[in-house]
Amino acid sequence: VPSAPRFSAAGMSVVEHVREMASAGLHSNVRLLSGLLLTMSGNNPELFSPSQKYQLLVYHADSLFHDKEYRNAVSKYTMALQQKKALSKTSKVRPSTGNAASTPQSQCLPSEIEVKYKMAECYTMLKQDKDAIAILDGIPSRQRTPKINMMLANLYKKAGQERSSVTSYKEVLRQCPLALDAILGRCLHTWYFSIKHSLEKKSLLRDNVDLLGSLADLYFRAGDNKNSILKFEQAQMLDPYLIKGMDVYGYLLAREGRLEDVENLGCRLFNISDQHAEPWVVSGCHSFYSKRYSRALYLGAKAIQLNSNSVQALLLKGAALRNMGRVQEAIIHFREAIRLAPCRLDCYEGLIECYLASNSIREAMVMANNVYKTLGANAQTLTLLATVCLEDPVTQEKAKTLLDKALTQRPDYIKAVVKKAELLSREQKYEDGIALLRNALANQSDCVLHRILGDFLVAVNEYQEAMDQYSIALSLDPNDQKSLEGMQKMEKEESPTDATQEEDVDDMEGSGEEGDLEGSDSEAAQWADQEQWFGMQ
User: Fold this and answer.
1) Please, are residues 221 and 215 in contact by the beta-carbon 8 Å criterion?
2) What is the per-residue pLDDT across 399-456, written as a single tens digit (0 to 9) for each?
3) CATH number of the CATH domain containing 269
4) Do 39 and 150 fall into the same domain?
5) Is residue 439 part of a domain?
6) Which terms are listed as keywords in the entry (predicted)?
């Protein structure tokens, strides 16, 4: 092979200059110069040696990656690997392996393993996870660095390949025993007890924000919303600039009816950064639970635009679409959320609610059974399966059995209590329902449980206590419409004359609440027009 002429400037070859600029982070300069040199090389193949051309392709691809031109970067990385393959056949030059015999030239060559890792990063940004797995899987196990194994583990987990995921996490921990994220990825229960121990009063880690946030997330996944909120509150008090996890925190607050707190949280997050998905999701939750679904849809879509991997944003947008009657579009979003977070039950709950809303009971049953088998028989999966069984008269007894099992595991699990109460109401077993609800409320206070208890008390003519339960429910969530309706119904029954007068006034003036909803709908058109710009790509 004839030697290539040496492009030099100030005692350095031009390729060395490109490498120096890349090391200095001058990406735009690298892109321009490497692009020119590659064009010259294409017109005169003998201008650069094979190893120099390989370096130019890698540095050019790196600059494209920095500019977020991922498809173009993948193309150039592929060309670089092809050039490296040809180089290996015609030359003995190899990347440095720590061997003393390595030549100075070989030490300058970019690592082929690093090139493949960058390609995998490009594929993940393009949502081509299968291609990312394929490129990393092609790297021999002994040559995989900890970050390669970590990426593989996360990709396997996202794809639902739990066994391969755990194997890769173990490999990360073999190389880096203190890789805490790998421990979390392997075993949530182990991580839970480790965090609980670390946060004990005498522990030096008791005020660690990351540990508190992780514990809050674990409580959330376990369906323990009260403790999750408590830990998120502690975390944000310690770090007022905290953003991570605040979308989940905002969602939980909104579910509790604490809309003023949600609004304040959204404002605080926007003051920190409007370039993260979290503040948009929190504001979207405020809109959703205020029944302003088009605005919630817009805010969820904006969050997805900022972070396409935001599970909470996908759930928000999916829920808004479902409540607006756009069920098929909602299903797409819930499926994407499941792809990103296959271990999060709320993603499956959203999809199943869509199936039930469209009377696709068979699809809902298949999905609920799959979740039950995949995530195991716990109070949450048992309740989810029971929820679907309640929709079919043929499977009512099965629903009862499942709910009894769920409540045996967790007597205070609110969703199971609500569904069991629904079943007892159908059977008109009001006394049993009252006993169930009183037992559930012995150690917790929840708006929905108090309201349902009020309904049951009305059924057995215990009107005064029913009124008390509705009052407690409204004190917990002033926006709970069903509690308000229950209370108003009782007031009308107690004073029929006043009720008739009120109806006359309503006929003449119209309902103020209805007017608010009309205003909401007219405003919704504005958000609906903008929503098309922020849909999923």
Assistant:
1) no
2) 999 999 999 999 989 999 999 999 999 999 999 999 999 999 998 888 999 999 999 9
3) 1.25.40.10
4) yes
5) no
6) Acetylation, Cell cycle, Cell division, Cytoplasm, Cytoskeleton, Mitosis, Nucleus, Repeat, TPR repeat, Ubl conjugation pathway
Contacts 24+ apart (CB under 8 A), 451-458: 451/480, 451/482, 451/483, 451/486, 452/418, 452/421, 454/483, 454/486, 455/425, 455/486, 456/421, 456/425, 456/430, 458/486, 458/490
In this structure, the answer to whether residues 263 and 308 fall within a common structural domain is: yes
Residue (of 68, 14, 20) closest to 40 by Cα position = 14
Tell which of 292, 326, 341 closes a domain.
341
Tell me: do 282 and 167 sit in the same domain.
no
Q: Provide φ and ψ at 11, rounded to 5°.
A: 80, 0
3-state secondary structure of 8: strand
* DSSP line for 114-181: HHHHHHHHHHHHTT-HHHHHHHHHTS-GGG--HHHHHHHHHHHHHTT-HHHHHHHHHHHHHH-TT-HH
Residues 32 and 177 reside in one and the same domain: yes
Give how many domains the chain has, as a whole number.
2
Does a structural domain hold residue 519? Answer: no
Report the range of poorest mean pLDDT among 88-92, 115-119, 232-236, 281-285: 88-92
Q: How far apart are CA 80 and CA 405, in angstroms?
A: 59
Express the helix, strand and coil content of the chain in percent, nearest 5 each: 75, 0, 25
Contact 4, 49 (CB under 8 A): yes
Domain boundary among 341, 360, 388: 341
User: CA 119, CA 136: separation in Å to the nearest integer?
Assistant: 9
Q: Each residue of 193-226: pLDDT tens digit? A: 556 656 656 667 678 898 889 889 988 988 889 9
User: With contact defined as beta carbons under 8 Å apart, do 281 and 250 qualify?
Assistant: yes
Q: What is the pTM of this model?
A: 0.70
Q: Is residue 116 part of a domain?
A: yes
Residue range(s) defining the domain that contains residue 174: 14-87+111-186
Number of CB atoms found within 10 A of residue 54's CB: 26
pLDDT of residue 257: 87
Q: Please state, in angstroms and rounded to a whole number, the distance separating the CA atoms of residues 48 and 41.
A: 7
* 468: enclosing H helix or E strand: helix 463-476
Asked whether residue 282 falls in the same domain as residue 144, the answer is no
Closest by CA to 5, choosing from 45, 54, 56, is 45
Task: Round to whole Å and give the CA distance between 282 and 363.
Answer: 31
Residue 500 lies in a domain: no
Share of the chain above pLDDT 70, in %: 82
Structure tokens at 423: 């079943």
Largest CA-CA distance found in the chain, in angstroms, rounded: 107
128 shares its domain with 175 = yes
Averaged pLDDT of the chain = 84
Beta bridge partners of 73: none
Q: Is pLDDT above 80 for 7?
A: no
Do 115 and 218 sit in the same domain of this protein? no
Residues 160 and 223 occupy one common structural domain: no
pLDDT tens-digit series, residues 448-489: 999 999 999 999 999 999 999 999 999 988 888 898 888 888
Q: Residue 399 in contact with residue 389, Cβ under 8 Å?
A: yes
